[in-house]
From TrEMBL:
Gene3D superfamilies, A to Z: 3.30.450.40, Heat-inducible transcription repressor hrca homolog, domain 3, Winged helix-like DNA-binding domain superfamily/Winged helix DNA-binding domain
Name of the protein in its database record: Heat-inducible transcription repressor HrcA
Organism of provenance: Raoultibacter timonensis
Designated gene of the protein: hrcA
NCBIfam families in alphabetical order: hrcA
Top-rank lineage group of the source organism: Bacteria
Keyword annotations: Repressor, Stress response, Transcription, Transcription regulation
UniProt cross-references to InterPro entries, sorted A to Z: GAF-like_dom_sf, HrcA, HrcA_C, WH-like_DNA-bd_sf, WH_DNA-bd_sf, WHTH_transcript_rep_HrcA_IDD
Length: 335
């Protein structure tokens, strides 16, 4: 546990390093921050912090920079003091996002853009699993006697569609009958719940190959739409950070983040609590993420929940990023 004075010195050093990305010396801290102690005391406190592993001197003639341990102490103090829970000065962004978005996908995209703009980092918003969303309505639209369009509307307003081909002619009346049957099965239920009530064998037992065919297409439509859930914005913004000025440094991170299944694993612990989780450098399970920090939280409830996250250098403005993630959570929470 750091004393109040060492916490102030550490916080000042981190704030200075976040702002300028240059090693910080004792003279800089004394001149720019009102620490209320002499330069000799600051030098002594820096030595103690270095011995304890909170900061490190990259070169013998240079100032100090924070370690992952130092950032962790800084972030924990931010969270405990409540400084990371205050609203951003532009909190009206929440209402603006909701007002201008036409549907959930649009809101997620706008929220991702806003997150990157507010944090200068990479933003990722994982949409809720379609498989957990309840279906409001299924429509079968005849395109010809051999082809129809299956349109699904979820209760949160998402519209999914998939075309289906018929080997034999199918009349509009036949399609209407199948549509009514499927709405009886699906309306107000998620795919997970439907699987508990009816499976493909049950549909076949109805003695109607057309029902089975369309039911298969509905299942495929939902499963296909459950891929590509991640909205990623801000790779170019991240490249402007000194840590990633060479694209090669960002390549291992992007390889990890390209796979939605991997992303879900990365953000597993974000769904465990109501507040943002902050993982710093080597606290991340994957070695490819050891040079970045991840701030993430869940929005929504239960199985129909998504994740909003920011990924940036360990030298990120944690207070601002945590506030921005909370803002995005608020925008998406009840959408």
């Amino acid at each position: 546990m750091l004393s109040d004075r060492r916490q102030r010195v550490l916080s000042a050093l981190i704030e200075e390093y976040v702002a300028r990305a240059l090693p910080v010396g004792s003279r800089t801290l004394v001149e720019r921050y009102k620490l209320g102690v002499s330069p000799a005391t600051v030098r002594n406190e820096l030595s103690v912090l270095e011995d304890a592993g909170y900061i490190v001197q990259p070169h013998t003639s240079a100032g100090r920079i924070p370690t992952d341990v130092g950032y962790r102490a800084f972030v924990d103090e931010l969270l405990e003091s409540g400084l990371a829970t205050d609203e951003l000065p532009y909190s009206d962004t929440v209402e603006e996002l909701k007002r201008n978005a036409s549907e959930l996908d649009d809101l997620i995209e706008r929220t991702s853009v806003a997150l990157t703009r507010l944090t200068d980092c990479l933003s990722i918003v994982l949409a809720p699993s379609v498989l957990a969303l309840r279906i409001r309505q299924i429509s079968l639209i005849s395109l010809s006697v051999h082809r129809a369009l299956v349109v699904l509307v979820t209760e949160d307003g998402q519209v999914l569609n998939r075309s289906v081909e018929f080997s034999e002619e199918v009349s509009s009346d036949d399609l209407a009958a199948v549509q009514n049957l499927l709405n009886d099965v699906f309306a107000g239920r998620s795919l997970t719940e439907v699987r508990d009530r009816i499976d493909l064998e049950a549909a076949e037992a109805l003695g109607d190959p057309l029902v089975r065919l369309v039911l298969e297409e509905v299942m495929y439509c939902l499963q296909e739409s459950d891929t590509g859930r991640a909205h990623r914005i801000g790779v170019s913004t991240l490249l402007r950070q000194p840590e990633f000025s060479h694209a090669q440094a960002l390549l291992p991170i992007m390889q990890i983040l390209e796979d939605d299944a991997v992303l879900l694993h990365v953000f597993d612990d974000a769904t465990a609590g109501i507040g943002p989780i902050v993982r710093i450098g080597h606290e991340n399970n994957d070695e490819a993420l050891s040079g970045v920090s991840v701030v993430a939280t869940q929005y929504g409830r239960g199985e129909a929940a998504g994740v909003v996250a920011v990924i940036g250098p360990t030298r990120m403005d944690y207070s601002k990023v945590i506030k921005a993630v909370r803002l995005a959570q608020s925008a998406l929470q009840d959408s």
